Here is the input.
Amino acid sequence: MFQSFLTKLIANKPAFIGALIVLAMFIISWLAPVLSPHDPSAISVAQRLRPPGTQGHLLGTDSLGRDILSRMIWGSRVSLKVGFVAVGLSTLIGLILGALSGYHGGLVDAAIMRFCDLMLCFPSMFLILAVIAILEPSIWNVMAVIGLTSWMGVARLVRAEILSLKNRDFALAAKVLGASDLRIICRHLLPNAMGPILVTATLGVAGAILTESSLSFLGLGVQPPTPTWGSILSEGKNYLHRAWWLSLYPGLAILITVLSYNLLGEGLREALSPHSNRRY
Amino acid sequence: MLAYTIKRLFMMIPTFIGITLISFIVIHLAPGDPTNMVTDLNPQASQSAKKRLTELYGLDKPIHIQYLNWLKNLVTLDLGRSMAPDRRPVIDKIKERLPVTLTLNLCSIFIIICISLPLGLWAAVRAGGWFDRFSTVGVFIFFAAPSFWLALLAMWLFGVNLGWLPISGLKSLNYDSLSFFDRLIDLSKHLVMPVIISSLGGLAGLSRYLRSNMLEIIRQDFLTTARAKGLSERLVIWKHALRNALIPVITILGLSVPGLVGGSVIMESIFAIPGLGQLFYAAVMGRDYPLVMGGLVMGAFLTLIGNFLADLGYALADPRVRDETFR
Here is the structure.
């Protein structure tokens, strides 16, 4: 079963390439201190706004003379951290609320699902910005806010899975044997829903990385001097006339990262779907 | 249809109250006193002035009373006064910005429909062909590209390098001296980049959705029947399949409203367009709580309207939906 899933995933070329890039990003951010050619916050007035390729600055420098390549390598840490912590949080909330809703039904279900609908009514950017305005913008707040505003998809998914599984024979058998509700949910029902949850989480990482970079671009995300892709782009906007490289490379990094997670997510979906026999 | 519309309208009321409740709770998560923002900047503000301010905004009352008062004022469209130095009513500020954002988003929705429909359908009809492959790659790229980055690239290329399009604002400096026709050209020149870039994400999503939906329908039995009774392939695809593929598009468009409204914060602040998004961003930066709350309610209200219109459209297109109300 697992092997056939793996073969399917590897046979899906776009998903495989996506997985490789995701892996490469992990290694790059892990080895950031070794890989980056310069200190990402080393200021050099003599080297301001150098174009790509000058004197060991492969991707140029910013308005304070800091090396763009090094800042991008360190910036990958922020993107990865925010992506995973935010999605971890939203998946956890979605799992708990979805399981409660699907398993108990009735009033609990109605209340949770109405709350879910309400949350979906808010343009998430408005909600996130409002909360950031109230709390101070920082990496932890950004993670928390993205997590707290993106659990609805997981909750609905888990609820639907639990609803379709809870009256099946194996679940009823567990109940007859005297298993507690928690045990039935965690040991018997949720493992069956792991596939779709994994797909949603993978696509969620892509979304969280995009949201974090938009927030940093608006100056309301991770605060300087921490290098992030969004904040380099934010500076790029001010130097559009003189330094196009500030605007090009960090965006390319976001695009490639988000694209890889999306491709991997789509590949997982195809590989986990029993009906799929698409050729590549 | 009328009964369905009325029922759907009434269903919006509890949702709207829920929206106001969440907005209110979010704003009152704030640690400290919102009036600090006003008094901190002025070292001469005395304790009594601060107290007056607290009373003026009703912050000395218990929180549920504050909420009920706020809700009562909301019914008369009174969202309180902005904490910015001009102290203008929030509703006035929102009113003057709303048309800009609506225009921008309606243009975007129009572009999304006009481009994604042919794109998705053609890709599905010729699935596996060169056009399908090409558009699939494009769709994945535009779906993953951050809109503010595409905006920067477009500004750099068309604004800075080629000088074809203006990169900020809605009007040129000499707008008032232009003739009506020239004003129209001036406005559309300013709108081209923001509208196209804000529609790219939705465009990619919708055409992808349409493609997979169409592929699913093409496989179904009723199309085999249509072919078997001798209808031409053109009629089968463009009439029988297309109609069924288009119905869910209405819902998807409704669902894309919050994304578009939220995205207008980014688009409007990049292109310096005086719309609701830019107003909200400024309110967030200035910790103008009444305005943030007003913007939050307005954004959710626009989504609610979008969903409402989508449901009506769906009921118009699919009789099964509207008849269900009477069963």
